[in-house]
Hints:
With about 475 residues, the chain is of the alpha/beta class. Helices cover about 45% and strands about 10% of the residues. It has three domains: about 25-160, Orthogonal Bundle (N-utilizing Substance Protein B Homolog, Chain A); about 175-210 and about 260-470, Rossmann fold (3-Layer(aba) Sandwich); about 210-260, no CATH class. The protein has helices spanning about 35-50, 50-60, 65-80, 85-95, 105-120, 125-140, 140-150, 155-165, 170-175, 180-195, 200-205, 250-255, 260-270, 290-305, 315-325, 365-370, 370-390, 410-420, 445-450, and strands at about 215, 230, 240, 255-260, 280-285, 305-310, 330, 345-350, 390-400, 425, 445, 455-460. α14 (about 290-305) links the parallel β5 and β6. The radius of gyration is 27 Å and the shape is globular. InterPro entries: MeTrfase_RsmB-F_NOP2_cat, MeTrfase_RsmB-F_NOP2_dom, NusB-like_sf, NusB_RsmB_TIM44, RCMT, RsmB/NOL1/NOP2-like_CS, SAM-dependent_MTases_sf. Belongs to the class I-like SAM-binding methyltransferase superfamily. RsmB/NOP family. This is rRNA cytosine-C5-methyltransferase.
Amino acid sequence: MPRSTPRRQPPRNSPQKAAKPQPTAPVRLIKDPARRAALDVLVAVRTDDAYANLVLPHVLAKYELSGRDAGFATELASGTLRQQGTYDAILAACLDRPLARVQAKVLDVLRLGAHQILSMRVPTFAAIDATVELAKQSTNASGLVNAVLRKVAARELDEWLAVLVIDDPLDRAAMVHSHPRWVVEALRQSLQGVGASSELDALLTADNLAPQVTLVARPGRSEVDELPGERTAYSPFGVVLESGSPSAVDAVREKRAGVQDEGSQLVALALADAPLVGRDELWLDICAGPGGKAALLEALADVRGAVLVANERQLHRAGLVAAHGVRRVVAGDGASAPFAAGTFDRLLVDAPCSGLGALRRRPEARWRKKPADIAELVPLQERLLTAALRLVRPGGVVLYATCSPVADETRGVVESVLTSTAAELVPIDLGVPDSAGPIPGTVQLWPHRHGTDAMFMALLQRPLTDRPLD
Protein backbone atom coordinates (compact mmCIF):
# COMPACT_ATOMS: atom_id res chain seq x y z
CA MET A 1 0.00 0.00 0.00
CA PRO A 2 1.31 3.45 -0.76
CA ARG A 3 2.36 5.48 2.19
CA SER A 4 0.00 8.24 3.15
CA THR A 5 1.34 11.70 2.73
CA PRO A 6 2.03 13.21 6.14
CA ARG A 7 0.01 16.30 7.04
CA ARG A 8 2.13 19.33 6.53
CA GLN A 9 2.81 21.19 9.79
CA PRO A 10 3.01 24.97 9.83
CA PRO A 11 6.45 26.43 10.45
CA ARG A 12 7.31 27.00 14.08
CA ASN A 13 6.15 30.40 15.33
CA SER A 14 4.05 30.98 12.22
CA PRO A 15 0.65 32.51 12.89
CA GLN A 16 -2.22 30.01 13.17
CA LYS A 17 -5.24 30.65 10.99
CA ALA A 18 -8.16 31.82 13.11
CA ALA A 19 -11.12 29.49 13.33
CA LYS A 20 -13.97 30.63 11.15
CA PRO A 21 -16.75 31.98 13.37
CA GLN A 22 -20.02 30.08 13.19
CA PRO A 23 -22.87 32.17 11.87
CA THR A 24 -25.66 33.02 14.30
CA ALA A 25 -29.28 33.43 13.36
CA PRO A 26 -30.31 37.06 12.97
CA VAL A 27 -32.70 38.30 15.63
CA ARG A 28 -35.38 38.77 12.98
CA LEU A 29 -35.33 35.00 12.29
CA ILE A 30 -36.06 34.06 15.90
CA LYS A 31 -39.39 32.31 16.17
CA ASP A 32 -42.12 34.40 17.83
CA PRO A 33 -39.94 37.43 18.65
CA ALA A 34 -42.83 39.34 20.28
CA ARG A 35 -43.26 36.76 23.02
CA ARG A 36 -39.49 36.42 23.38
CA ALA A 37 -39.30 40.18 23.83
CA ALA A 38 -41.99 40.13 26.53
CA LEU A 39 -40.12 37.38 28.36
CA ASP A 40 -36.89 39.39 28.15
CA VAL A 41 -38.65 42.31 29.82
CA LEU A 42 -39.92 40.13 32.67
CA VAL A 43 -36.47 38.64 33.18
CA ALA A 44 -34.84 42.10 33.21
CA VAL A 45 -37.37 43.36 35.76
CA ARG A 46 -36.81 40.31 37.97
CA THR A 47 -33.04 39.98 37.75
CA ASP A 48 -31.81 43.55 37.15
CA ASP A 49 -34.48 45.59 38.99
CA ALA A 50 -35.18 47.21 35.62
CA TYR A 51 -38.24 49.35 35.01
CA ALA A 52 -40.42 47.88 32.28
CA ASN A 53 -41.14 51.24 30.63
CA LEU A 54 -37.41 51.93 30.34
CA VAL A 55 -36.26 48.51 29.18
CA LEU A 56 -39.12 47.99 26.69
CA PRO A 57 -37.83 50.33 23.96
CA HIS A 58 -34.44 48.61 23.98
CA VAL A 59 -35.98 45.14 23.80
CA LEU A 60 -38.34 46.14 21.00
CA ALA A 61 -35.37 47.51 19.05
CA LYS A 62 -33.35 44.35 19.73
CA TYR A 63 -36.04 42.17 18.16
CA GLU A 64 -36.80 44.74 15.44
CA LEU A 65 -40.45 44.96 16.47
CA SER A 66 -42.80 47.70 15.37
CA GLY A 67 -46.48 48.28 14.79
CA ARG A 68 -48.80 45.52 15.97
CA ASP A 69 -45.96 43.23 17.04
CA ALA A 70 -44.50 45.94 19.26
CA GLY A 71 -47.95 46.63 20.69
CA PHE A 72 -48.50 42.93 21.40
CA ALA A 73 -45.14 42.59 23.17
CA THR A 74 -45.77 45.76 25.19
CA GLU A 75 -49.22 44.69 26.37
CA LEU A 76 -48.02 41.15 27.11
CA ALA A 77 -45.13 42.35 29.28
CA SER A 78 -46.87 45.28 30.99
CA GLY A 79 -50.16 43.48 31.50
CA THR A 80 -48.44 40.43 32.97
CA LEU A 81 -46.57 42.63 35.45
CA ARG A 82 -49.75 44.48 36.43
CA GLN A 83 -51.79 41.33 36.99
CA GLN A 84 -48.99 39.26 38.53
CA GLY A 85 -50.67 38.93 41.92
CA THR A 86 -53.94 37.71 40.43
CA TYR A 87 -52.22 35.27 38.10
CA ASP A 88 -50.07 33.89 40.90
CA ALA A 89 -53.21 33.06 42.91
CA ILE A 90 -54.70 31.26 39.91
CA LEU A 91 -51.47 29.45 39.05
CA ALA A 92 -51.09 28.32 42.67
CA ALA A 93 -54.51 26.67 42.39
CA CYS A 94 -53.38 24.82 39.26
CA LEU A 95 -50.00 23.58 40.51
CA ASP A 96 -49.18 20.42 42.43
CA ARG A 97 -46.46 22.21 44.39
CA PRO A 98 -46.11 25.52 46.22
CA LEU A 99 -45.54 28.49 43.95
CA ALA A 100 -42.26 29.20 45.76
CA ARG A 101 -40.87 25.88 44.49
CA VAL A 102 -41.37 26.79 40.82
CA GLN A 103 -38.24 28.07 39.09
CA ALA A 104 -38.38 31.81 38.57
CA LYS A 105 -37.87 31.56 34.81
CA VAL A 106 -40.66 28.97 34.56
CA LEU A 107 -42.96 31.22 36.58
CA ASP A 108 -42.22 34.08 34.17
CA VAL A 109 -43.40 31.90 31.28
CA LEU A 110 -46.49 30.71 33.17
CA ARG A 111 -47.50 34.29 33.96
CA LEU A 112 -47.14 35.27 30.30
CA GLY A 113 -49.34 32.36 29.31
CA ALA A 114 -51.95 33.16 31.95
CA HIS A 115 -52.19 36.76 30.75
CA GLN A 116 -52.79 35.69 27.16
CA ILE A 117 -55.43 33.15 28.17
CA LEU A 118 -57.30 35.25 30.72
CA SER A 119 -56.90 38.87 29.62
CA MET A 120 -55.90 39.11 25.94
CA ARG A 121 -57.70 38.37 22.70
CA VAL A 122 -55.52 35.40 21.95
CA PRO A 123 -57.28 32.10 21.13
CA THR A 124 -56.71 29.63 23.95
CA PHE A 125 -55.06 26.96 21.81
CA ALA A 126 -52.69 29.55 20.29
CA ALA A 127 -51.80 30.99 23.70
CA ILE A 128 -51.00 27.55 25.13
CA ASP A 129 -49.08 26.31 22.09
CA ALA A 130 -47.02 29.47 21.77
CA THR A 131 -46.23 29.58 25.48
CA VAL A 132 -45.21 25.92 25.52
CA GLU A 133 -42.89 26.63 22.59
CA LEU A 134 -41.48 29.59 24.51
CA ALA A 135 -40.88 27.27 27.48
CA LYS A 136 -39.01 24.84 25.22
CA GLN A 137 -36.71 27.65 24.12
CA SER A 138 -35.99 29.02 27.59
CA THR A 139 -36.63 26.28 30.18
CA ASN A 140 -36.78 22.51 30.54
CA ALA A 141 -40.34 22.61 31.87
CA SER A 142 -42.51 22.67 28.75
CA GLY A 143 -44.55 19.72 30.02
CA LEU A 144 -45.34 21.49 33.28
CA VAL A 145 -46.23 24.69 31.42
CA ASN A 146 -48.57 22.80 29.10
CA ALA A 147 -50.36 21.01 31.95
CA VAL A 148 -50.77 24.08 34.14
CA LEU A 149 -51.97 26.38 31.38
CA ARG A 150 -54.61 23.85 30.31
CA LYS A 151 -55.97 24.01 33.86
CA VAL A 152 -55.85 27.80 33.79
CA ALA A 153 -57.83 27.78 30.53
CA ALA A 154 -60.62 25.72 32.09
CA ARG A 155 -62.18 28.90 33.54
CA GLU A 156 -62.61 32.50 32.51
CA LEU A 157 -60.97 35.16 34.69
CA ASP A 158 -64.25 36.12 36.38
CA GLU A 159 -64.90 32.47 37.19
CA TRP A 160 -61.45 32.12 38.75
CA LEU A 161 -62.03 35.20 40.89
CA ALA A 162 -65.33 33.72 42.04
CA VAL A 163 -63.94 30.33 43.05
CA LEU A 164 -60.87 31.69 44.83
CA VAL A 165 -62.51 32.34 48.17
CA ILE A 166 -60.78 34.85 50.45
CA ASP A 167 -62.67 36.06 53.50
CA ASP A 168 -60.63 39.10 54.52
CA PRO A 169 -61.82 42.08 52.41
CA LEU A 170 -58.36 43.63 52.04
CA ASP A 171 -56.76 40.28 51.16
CA ARG A 172 -59.45 39.73 48.56
CA ALA A 173 -59.00 43.22 47.12
CA ALA A 174 -55.26 42.56 46.93
CA MET A 175 -55.82 39.35 44.97
CA VAL A 176 -58.57 40.62 42.67
CA HIS A 177 -56.77 43.87 41.83
CA SER A 178 -53.22 42.48 41.93
CA HIS A 179 -51.72 44.74 44.61
CA PRO A 180 -49.72 43.75 47.69
CA ARG A 181 -51.96 43.85 50.74
CA TRP A 182 -49.94 46.56 52.46
CA VAL A 183 -50.34 48.80 49.40
CA VAL A 184 -54.11 48.23 49.44
CA GLU A 185 -54.20 49.22 53.11
CA ALA A 186 -52.05 52.32 52.51
CA LEU A 187 -54.27 53.47 49.62
CA ARG A 188 -57.42 52.81 51.65
CA GLN A 189 -56.09 55.02 54.43
CA SER A 190 -55.21 57.71 51.88
CA LEU A 191 -58.76 57.74 50.58
CA GLN A 192 -60.10 57.90 54.12
CA GLY A 193 -57.94 60.98 54.59
CA VAL A 194 -60.06 62.77 51.99
CA GLY A 195 -63.31 61.16 53.10
CA ALA A 196 -63.75 58.64 50.27
CA SER A 197 -62.75 55.15 51.41
CA SER A 198 -65.63 53.70 49.35
CA GLU A 199 -63.62 54.42 46.18
CA LEU A 200 -60.92 51.85 46.92
CA ASP A 201 -62.04 49.37 44.24
CA ALA A 202 -62.23 52.16 41.66
CA LEU A 203 -58.71 53.34 42.52
CA LEU A 204 -57.23 49.83 42.37
CA THR A 205 -58.99 49.22 39.06
CA ALA A 206 -57.57 52.46 37.65
CA ASP A 207 -54.09 51.40 38.72
CA ASN A 208 -54.38 48.46 36.33
CA LEU A 209 -55.40 50.47 33.28
CA ALA A 210 -52.63 51.21 30.81
CA PRO A 211 -52.16 55.00 30.84
CA GLN A 212 -52.66 57.07 27.73
CA VAL A 213 -49.70 58.95 26.33
CA THR A 214 -50.01 62.64 27.21
CA LEU A 215 -47.96 65.37 25.52
CA VAL A 216 -47.14 68.82 26.87
CA ALA A 217 -46.58 71.96 24.82
CA ARG A 218 -43.86 74.04 26.48
CA PRO A 219 -45.04 77.68 26.44
CA GLY A 220 -43.07 80.02 24.24
CA ARG A 221 -41.60 77.04 22.37
CA SER A 222 -44.63 75.27 20.99
CA GLU A 223 -48.40 75.66 20.79
CA VAL A 224 -50.95 73.11 21.97
CA ASP A 225 -52.63 73.28 18.56
CA GLU A 226 -49.56 71.82 16.83
CA LEU A 227 -49.72 68.65 18.94
CA PRO A 228 -51.88 65.79 17.64
CA GLY A 229 -54.55 64.73 20.10
CA GLU A 230 -57.44 65.83 22.28
CA ARG A 231 -56.93 68.59 24.83
CA THR A 232 -56.43 67.48 28.42
CA ALA A 233 -59.22 68.25 30.87
CA TYR A 234 -57.28 70.41 33.33
CA SER A 235 -53.88 71.40 31.99
CA PRO A 236 -53.89 74.15 29.34
CA PHE A 237 -50.64 72.74 27.92
CA GLY A 238 -51.57 69.09 27.37
CA VAL A 239 -53.05 66.78 24.76
CA VAL A 240 -53.73 63.05 24.86
CA LEU A 241 -51.91 61.49 21.91
CA GLU A 242 -54.39 59.87 19.56
CA SER A 243 -52.04 57.29 18.07
CA GLY A 244 -48.50 56.70 16.97
CA SER A 245 -45.20 57.39 18.66
CA PRO A 246 -44.40 60.69 20.41
CA SER A 247 -41.05 60.69 18.60
CA ALA A 248 -42.95 61.16 15.34
CA VAL A 249 -44.16 64.58 16.55
CA ASP A 250 -41.88 67.37 15.34
CA ALA A 251 -42.20 69.47 18.49
CA VAL A 252 -41.28 66.48 20.69
CA ARG A 253 -38.24 65.61 18.58
CA GLU A 254 -37.13 69.24 18.75
CA LYS A 255 -37.67 69.36 22.57
CA ARG A 256 -40.19 72.14 22.22
CA ALA A 257 -42.74 69.71 23.66
CA GLY A 258 -42.50 66.49 25.65
CA VAL A 259 -44.26 63.48 27.08
CA GLN A 260 -45.70 64.30 30.50
CA ASP A 261 -48.62 63.10 32.61
CA GLU A 262 -51.26 65.78 33.11
CA GLY A 263 -50.78 65.60 36.87
CA SER A 264 -47.11 66.51 36.50
CA GLN A 265 -48.06 69.42 34.25
CA LEU A 266 -50.38 70.68 36.99
CA VAL A 267 -47.53 70.51 39.52
CA ALA A 268 -45.49 72.93 37.42
CA LEU A 269 -48.52 75.15 36.91
CA ALA A 270 -49.28 75.20 40.65
CA LEU A 271 -45.82 76.55 41.41
CA ALA A 272 -45.70 79.00 38.51
CA ASP A 273 -49.13 80.49 39.33
CA ALA A 274 -48.69 80.67 43.11
CA PRO A 275 -49.30 84.18 44.46
CA LEU A 276 -46.07 86.01 45.19
CA VAL A 277 -45.20 89.37 46.73
CA GLY A 278 -42.09 91.10 45.42
CA ARG A 279 -39.54 89.97 42.88
CA ASP A 280 -40.08 86.92 40.67
CA GLU A 281 -36.75 86.36 38.95
CA LEU A 282 -35.13 83.09 40.08
CA TRP A 283 -36.74 79.64 40.33
CA LEU A 284 -35.29 76.32 41.49
CA ASP A 285 -36.29 72.70 40.92
CA ILE A 286 -34.35 71.06 43.73
CA CYS A 287 -34.94 67.40 42.76
CA ALA A 288 -35.13 67.85 39.01
CA GLY A 289 -34.44 64.36 37.62
CA PRO A 290 -35.49 63.02 35.21
CA GLY A 291 -36.40 66.50 33.99
CA GLY A 292 -39.96 66.72 32.67
CA LYS A 293 -41.23 69.18 35.27
CA ALA A 294 -38.00 71.21 35.04
CA ALA A 295 -38.41 71.55 31.27
CA LEU A 296 -41.97 72.88 31.64
CA LEU A 297 -40.96 75.18 34.50
CA GLU A 298 -38.08 76.58 32.47
CA ALA A 299 -40.43 77.37 29.59
CA LEU A 300 -42.85 79.10 31.97
CA ALA A 301 -39.99 81.04 33.57
CA ASP A 302 -38.65 82.15 30.20
CA VAL A 303 -42.03 83.55 29.20
CA ARG A 304 -42.11 85.60 32.40
CA GLY A 305 -38.52 86.80 32.20
CA ALA A 306 -37.39 84.60 35.09
CA VAL A 307 -34.56 82.04 35.24
CA LEU A 308 -34.86 78.40 36.29
CA VAL A 309 -32.04 76.40 37.88
CA ALA A 310 -32.42 72.61 37.96
CA ASN A 311 -30.62 70.73 40.72
CA GLU A 312 -30.24 66.93 40.77
CA ARG A 313 -28.12 64.87 43.15
CA GLN A 314 -27.34 61.93 40.86
CA LEU A 315 -25.08 62.70 37.91
CA HIS A 316 -26.78 60.38 35.45
CA ARG A 317 -30.18 61.86 36.31
CA ALA A 318 -28.74 65.36 35.95
CA GLY A 319 -27.80 64.26 32.43
CA LEU A 320 -31.42 63.27 31.80
CA VAL A 321 -32.53 66.75 32.87
CA ALA A 322 -30.10 68.32 30.41
CA ALA A 323 -31.36 65.95 27.71
CA HIS A 324 -34.80 67.59 28.06
CA GLY A 325 -33.17 70.81 26.89
CA VAL A 326 -32.95 72.43 30.34
CA ARG A 327 -30.08 74.92 30.18
CA ARG A 328 -28.95 75.39 33.79
CA VAL A 329 -28.39 72.06 35.51
CA VAL A 330 -26.47 71.64 38.77
CA ALA A 331 -25.46 68.32 40.36
CA GLY A 332 -25.88 68.65 44.11
CA ASP A 333 -27.59 67.14 47.14
CA GLY A 334 -30.92 68.90 47.54
CA ALA A 335 -30.81 68.57 51.33
CA SER A 336 -27.58 70.62 51.37
CA ALA A 337 -27.76 72.27 47.96
CA PRO A 338 -24.89 74.61 46.99
CA PHE A 339 -26.96 77.78 47.06
CA ALA A 340 -27.07 80.69 49.47
CA ALA A 341 -30.04 80.99 51.82
CA GLY A 342 -32.81 83.27 50.56
CA THR A 343 -31.71 83.04 46.91
CA PHE A 344 -34.86 81.89 45.14
CA ASP A 345 -38.37 83.21 44.64
CA ARG A 346 -40.11 79.97 43.65
CA LEU A 347 -38.92 76.46 44.42
CA LEU A 348 -40.20 72.98 43.60
CA VAL A 349 -39.56 69.97 45.84
CA ASP A 350 -40.67 67.03 43.70
CA ALA A 351 -39.55 64.69 46.45
CA PRO A 352 -38.28 61.13 46.05
CA CYS A 353 -41.22 59.00 47.13
CA SER A 354 -42.69 55.50 47.03
CA GLY A 355 -44.34 56.19 43.66
CA LEU A 356 -47.55 54.44 44.72
CA GLY A 357 -49.51 57.08 42.85
CA ALA A 358 -47.94 56.10 39.52
CA LEU A 359 -48.51 52.35 39.48
CA ARG A 360 -50.22 52.64 36.08
CA ARG A 361 -46.89 53.64 34.57
CA ARG A 362 -44.58 51.38 36.53
CA PRO A 363 -46.63 48.25 37.22
CA GLU A 364 -43.65 46.36 38.64
CA ALA A 365 -43.09 48.99 41.35
CA ARG A 366 -45.92 47.57 43.47
CA TRP A 367 -44.00 44.30 43.86
CA ARG A 368 -40.70 46.01 44.72
CA LYS A 369 -41.76 48.52 47.33
CA LYS A 370 -41.93 47.62 51.01
CA PRO A 371 -43.35 49.52 54.00
CA ALA A 372 -39.78 50.03 55.20
CA ASP A 373 -39.09 52.06 52.05
CA ILE A 374 -41.60 54.69 53.12
CA ALA A 375 -40.15 54.79 56.62
CA GLU A 376 -36.75 55.54 55.06
CA LEU A 377 -38.11 58.15 52.64
CA VAL A 378 -40.06 60.30 55.09
CA PRO A 379 -37.01 61.76 56.92
CA LEU A 380 -35.44 62.61 53.56
CA GLN A 381 -38.64 64.29 52.38
CA GLU A 382 -38.74 66.38 55.56
CA ARG A 383 -35.08 67.39 55.17
CA LEU A 384 -35.61 68.41 51.56
CA LEU A 385 -38.67 70.51 52.34
CA THR A 386 -36.96 72.20 55.28
CA ALA A 387 -33.85 72.93 53.19
CA ALA A 388 -36.03 74.34 50.42
CA LEU A 389 -37.67 76.80 52.80
CA ARG A 390 -34.23 78.13 53.73
CA LEU A 391 -33.35 78.65 50.07
CA VAL A 392 -36.33 80.86 49.23
CA ARG A 393 -36.37 84.52 50.23
CA PRO A 394 -38.88 85.84 52.77
CA GLY A 395 -42.20 85.80 50.95
CA GLY A 396 -40.94 83.11 48.54
CA VAL A 397 -42.94 79.94 47.93
CA VAL A 398 -42.11 76.24 47.93
CA LEU A 399 -44.32 73.63 46.28
CA TYR A 400 -43.96 70.19 47.85
CA ALA A 401 -45.14 67.42 45.50
CA THR A 402 -45.12 63.63 45.53
CA CYS A 403 -46.46 61.02 43.12
CA SER A 404 -47.79 59.20 46.17
CA PRO A 405 -51.03 59.72 48.10
CA VAL A 406 -49.74 57.82 51.15
CA ALA A 407 -50.42 59.76 54.37
CA ASP A 408 -46.90 59.48 55.78
CA GLU A 409 -45.41 61.01 52.63
CA THR A 410 -48.02 63.74 52.21
CA ARG A 411 -49.90 64.99 55.23
CA GLY A 412 -47.32 63.65 57.66
CA VAL A 413 -44.37 65.43 56.02
CA VAL A 414 -46.17 68.75 55.57
CA GLU A 415 -47.55 68.86 59.11
CA SER A 416 -44.15 67.96 60.56
CA VAL A 417 -42.40 70.77 58.66
CA LEU A 418 -45.12 73.31 59.48
CA THR A 419 -44.67 72.42 63.15
CA SER A 420 -40.87 72.68 63.09
CA THR A 421 -40.59 75.88 61.00
CA ALA A 422 -42.29 79.25 60.69
CA ALA A 423 -43.53 78.42 57.19
CA GLU A 424 -47.18 79.04 56.34
CA LEU A 425 -49.50 76.93 54.21
CA VAL A 426 -50.94 78.73 51.17
CA PRO A 427 -54.12 77.30 49.57
CA ILE A 428 -53.80 75.96 46.00
CA ASP A 429 -56.68 76.46 43.57
CA LEU A 430 -56.18 74.64 40.27
CA GLY A 431 -59.87 74.54 39.43
CA VAL A 432 -59.83 70.74 39.41
CA PRO A 433 -63.00 69.21 40.88
CA ASP A 434 -62.84 66.64 43.68
CA SER A 435 -59.14 67.31 44.27
CA ALA A 436 -59.13 68.40 47.92
CA GLY A 437 -56.11 67.03 49.74
CA PRO A 438 -55.84 65.63 53.26
CA ILE A 439 -54.98 69.10 54.64
CA PRO A 440 -57.29 72.00 53.73
CA GLY A 441 -55.68 73.97 50.92
CA THR A 442 -53.64 71.06 49.57
CA VAL A 443 -54.39 69.12 46.37
CA GLN A 444 -54.66 65.39 45.79
CA LEU A 445 -55.20 64.10 42.25
CA TRP A 446 -56.34 60.53 41.59
CA PRO A 447 -56.18 58.11 38.63
CA HIS A 448 -59.83 57.05 39.06
CA ARG A 449 -61.16 60.62 39.41
CA HIS A 450 -58.93 62.67 37.14
CA GLY A 451 -57.13 60.19 34.87
CA THR A 452 -53.78 61.42 36.21
CA ASP A 453 -51.14 59.99 38.49
CA ALA A 454 -52.04 60.42 42.17
CA MET A 455 -50.09 63.65 42.62
CA PHE A 456 -50.12 65.43 45.98
CA MET A 457 -49.31 69.16 46.23
CA ALA A 458 -48.85 71.52 49.15
CA LEU A 459 -47.73 75.14 48.82
CA LEU A 460 -45.67 76.62 51.66
CA GLN A 461 -44.50 80.21 51.99
CA ARG A 462 -41.57 81.59 53.92
CA PRO A 463 -42.97 84.40 56.07
CA LEU A 464 -42.22 87.97 55.06
CA THR A 465 -40.79 88.57 58.52
CA ASP A 466 -37.42 86.92 58.13
CA ARG A 467 -37.64 84.73 61.19
CA PRO A 468 -35.42 81.66 61.58
CA LEU A 469 -37.03 78.56 60.11
CA ASP A 470 -35.62 76.10 62.63
